[in-house]
Design goal:
By secondary structure, the chain is mainly alpha-helical. Helix content is 47%, strand content 8%. The longest helix has 33 residues, at 7-39. It is elongated and about 75 Å long.
Length: 130
């Protein structure tokens, strides 16, 4: 009896599948978070800085004002030995909105998305690899 080892091919298939699924999750997250930001406000860029009359309430995702935060939401997937996806923003004030400050209650959008998407993320990652 001859045994053929396909370990490297199987490992590569698992790695590539995981990376592709993480890209899908990243794009879903980016889309959904941008939708959460738009719900309470107008179209990105329609308010202009400081002119937005429909401010978000504490605990709600921040409403779109100038559109800078909305435009900055990105997803990035790295292959590497262990693939990973990051969803977020490089806008400095986003952490103040997400976590709040001593002067302002939090207006989160990243954590609520993750909490709400947990089942979808689990389903996408848990699908059988063909």
């Amino acid at each position: 009896m001859k045994i053929v080892w396909h370990g490297k091919e199987v490992a590569n298939k698992i790695h590539d599948t995981l990376e592709n699924r993480l890209k899908i999750i990243g794009e879903l997250g980016k889309r959904d978070i941008k939708q959460m930001l738009k719900k309470g406000g107008g179209a990105p860029g329609s308010g202009g800085k400081g002119r937005h009359l429909n401010r978000s309430k504490p605990g709600e995702p921040p409403h779109v004002d100038s559109g800078r935060l909305w435009r900055s939401i990105q997803s990035e997937t790295e292959g590497g030995f262990i693939p990973k996806t990051r969803i977020g923003t490089n806008v400095t004030y986003a952490k103040w909105l997400e976590l709040g400050t001593s002067q302002m209650a939090a207006r989160p959008c990243l954590r609520p998305w993750l909490d709400g998407a947990r089942e979808d993320v689990t389903r996408i990652l848990g699908q059988r690899i063909e």
